[in-house]
Amino acid sequence: MDLGIKGKRALVCASSKGLGRGCAEALAEAGVDLVLNGRGAETLEATAAHIRDTHGVNVVAVAADVATDTGRDALLEAAAGVDILVNNAGGPPPGLWSDWDRDDFIAALDANMLAPIALMKALMPGMIDKGWGRVVNITSGSVKAPIPQLGLSNSARAGLTGYVAGTARQVAEFGVNVNNMLPGIHATDRAVSLDTGVSKAQGIDIETARANRQATIPAKRYGTAAEFGAMCAFLCSQHAGFIVGQNIVLDGGAINATI
Predict the structure, then answer these.
(1) Does 93 have pLDDT greater than 90?
(2) Which of 85, 96, 141, 209 could cross-link with 198 by S-S, CB 3.0 to 4.6 Å?
(3) pLDDT tier, 94 (very low <50, low <70, confident <90, very high otherwise)
(4) Which numeric CATH code is attached to 9-185+224-250?
(5) What whole-number distance in Å separates Cα of residue 220 and Cα of residue 174?
(6) Strand segments (E) across 79-132
């Protein structure tokens, strides 16, 4: 399918690896020029070089922490006038409800709620002026079904979801579509980290921990960054103009819900 976005420009946050990279790769395959972002310069540059060589699109790499004012300023300087924004940031650490104090919540909000809101506020006016734009926020399946040990993530991402729900309906008339993607477990470094934690806590090897988690997913496997990226690219395409303020779950059926 021709997505109709060849020649557009996109900022994809936290895109040096994992789900962000999956989105960047899919957009590049569709002919979209990219501003990539990550905190580790070496990994980021390697990803940028691979995408340039593979897809022949223009790629600018900005090593920065999107959760900081300085990092966002650097990103916005490189991404001025982009047509597409993909918001993404690593989730805060797990724990018990009694573990976290105000500083922990502020850090989670900065990374997973306030940073994406700041980028939307900065970049959507340009999209509105052009009469076309796409914003995809990578949140979490925990927005729909909260994960007890991820209380910081549950809180911050739910706040972003509420903001998007109202905002998306205010900008849709200008050709700007804002939606969220809610991943379950995918075969990324995050899954390795989670499975490693389970293996240590339960005294089992990581392969057993992974198999046990996969058994709880109706699809009986983890998702891939490539299939996640394909959905992201579709939401950014010319074909997604009537999808507004939605939360698309990609979890292999793990969340047991009718709606």
Answers:
(1) no
(2) 209
(3) confident
(4) 3.40.50.720
(5) 41
(6) 84-87
Q: Could you identify the residue written with the tokens 């223009």?
A: 58
Retrieve residue 144's tokens.
């729909």
- Half-sphere exposure at residue 19, Cβ-oriented, CA atoms within 13 angstroms: 27
pLDDT in tens, 185-205: 999 988 998 899 899 999 999
- Supply 75's token pair: 């990103």
Quick one: how many helices (H) and strands (E) in the chain?
9, 7
- The rounded distance, in Å, linking the Cα atoms of 158 and 113 is 8
Is the confidence at residue 143, as pLDDT, over 90?
yes
Backbone angles phi, psi at 80, to 5 degrees: -55, 130
> What phi and psi, each to the nearest 5 degrees, are found at residue 235?
-65, -25
The answer to whether 136 touches 228, Cβ cutoff 8 Å, is no
